[in-house]
Design brief:
427 residues; alpha/beta; Rossmann fold; binds nicotinamide-adenine-dinucleotide
Length: 427
């Protein structure tokens, strides 16, 4: 999949761009990543040997502001994937109205095989390689798959050491004690949850009748499952990289989270106080989870999981893309023919970058907000973006994904026109 991911992302931009009624300059500007830096990262391993890892950082587009996007640690990371993810960040920041362009980074590594100290040395090596490429006013990284607040803290520390300044705004998703924002930890899941609440009110759902399957139980997947469960939604399936569990009766999300923290496995637990017991369940694969007949499917792990191979078996009525790029562009029309409502990644997971933006604003001002303030501001931005996209989708009879891209492209169009287009110069 990864080899085709960038081409697939570009094809989607071209297809939707042709309906967006925007200058060709906009579409062209989205075809070309501005700059991607590839670097070898030498790391001293615990046994004294030196290993070389490959790191990437892409500053895709800075039309609306400095580029912004996470850093992923995964064995499948490659340049095409990083550039596709950076393109999606460009669209995402525009639809939620942030003063940012899009960027992304990654290291090709199986982080599970490294010790904590090796991960620290690798993270610092990444910043040493990228220190002149990132910066609080040029390109601002954040966490993504298999990176977290602790890693962001190490990266900020390395950057400040190199530059000999305090620069907390160079990276977001940091620990609170190092200038992180309250509410950043669950922001991605909360943003997706806010989208589902909007769907709930449009469709007049009763949460206890609504079944949900979640693929991926990390930062995004866990928090959206937890918030939905607290509202009475029935979380019938959960998985991680090792496989999943299913129960018609639904699971207690926090009990499963507790089990995962302790054993590093998804286990069908119900815990009361400190006593946990196993509840009735079926063991399922990640492939089976995706094909469940549920009201809401939430892919919250990796890209390219719904493809030409399995799209015909997808039975969910709604798909909320917490992961970036879980549905490939090639099957967009089949998903539409099946009548599945998709809340696209560029909207569904935009809560993460929105609270990252809040963190950056707070760092720049040196003035920090309370948790209710963060939650209220996040809800205002997410609800506004949802309703703008919903309205385009209804008025122009297009899918929510197409509507989201159209909204972003019209914002780019205004900025491109302000710089002066071909039409401006020829008149
Ligand atoms: P994470 O590292 O916290 O969790 C990833 C989860 O996916 C883990 O539970 C892991 O076991 C599982 N997983 C990995 N490979 C899998 C596989 N092959 N099948 C099933 N599960 C698998 O990562 P995260 O931050 O939650 O990111 C998940 C997705 O959300 C990614 O696509 C990421 O780009 C996207 N996202 C994250 C953020 C953020 O703020 N963290 C923001 C926007 C989008």
């Amino acid at each position: 999949m990864s080899d085709h991911i960038f081409k697939d992302a570009i094809e989607r931009v071209k297809r939707i761009g042709s309906q967006a009624d925007v200058s060709l300059d906009v579409i062209n500007s989205l075809m070309h990543p501005h700059a991607t830096l590839t670097a070898s990262l030498p790391v001293r391993m615990d046994d004294g040997s030196t290993q070389y890892f490959t790191g990437y950082r892409c500053r895709y587009n800075n039309l609306l502001g400095p580029s912004k996007g996470g850093i992923r640690y995964h064995p499948d990371v490659n340049r095409q994937e990083v550039e596709a993810l950076a393109l999606w960040m460009t669209i995402k920041c525009a639809i939620v109205g942030l003063p940012y362009g899009g960027g992304k980074g990654g290291i090709t590594v199986d982080a599970k095989k490294l010790s904590a100290m090796e991960i620290e040395r690798l993270s610092r090596a990444y910043v040493r390689a990228m220190a002149d490429f990132i910066g609080p006013d040029t390109d601002i990284p954040a966490p993504d798959v298999y990176t977290n607040a602790r890693i962001m803290g190490w990266m900020m520390d390395e950057y400040e050491t190199i530059k000999r300044v305090k620069a907390p705004g160079v990276i977001t998703g940091k620990p609170i004690s190092l200038g992180g924002s309250l509410g950043r930890d669950d922001a991605t899941g909360r943003g997706a949850y806010l989208c589902i609440k909007q769907l709930e009110s449009k469709n007049k759902w009763q949460p206890h009748n609504i079944t949900v399957a979640v693929q991926g139980f990390g930062n995004g997947g866990y928090h959206v499952a937890r918030l939905l469960h607290d509202d009475g939604y029935k979380i019938v399936a959960i998985s991680d990289s090792q496989g999943g569990i299913y129960s018609d009766n639904g699971f207690d999300v926090d009990s499963i989270y507790k089990g995962k923290q302790e054993t590093n496995r998804i286990t069908a637990l119900y815990c009361k106080h400190s006593v946990c017991e196993l509840v009735d369940h079926d063991v399922i694969t990640n492939e089976q989870l995706l094909e469940l007949d549920v009201d809401i499917l939430i892919p919250a792990a990796l890209d390219g999981v719904i493809t030409t191979k399995n799209v015909k078996n997808i039975k969910a009525k709604n798909i909320v893309e917490v992961a970036n790029g879980p549905i490939i562009g090639e099957v967009d029309h089949i998903i539409a023919q099946k009548g599945i409502t998709v809340i696209p990644d560029v909207l569904a997971n935009a809560g993460g970058v929105t609270v990252s933006y809040f963190e950056w604003v707070q760092n720049k001002n040196g003035y920090y907000w309370s948790l209710p303030e963060v939650h209220n501001k996040l809800a205002t931005i997410m609800n506004q973006a949802f309703s703008e996209i919903w309205d385009i989708s209804i008025n122009e009879k297009v899918s929510m994904r197409d509507a989201a891209y159209i909204l972003a492209m019209r914002r780019f169009d205004k900025a491109v026109s302000a710089h002066g287009t071909q039409q401006y110069f020829s008149n």
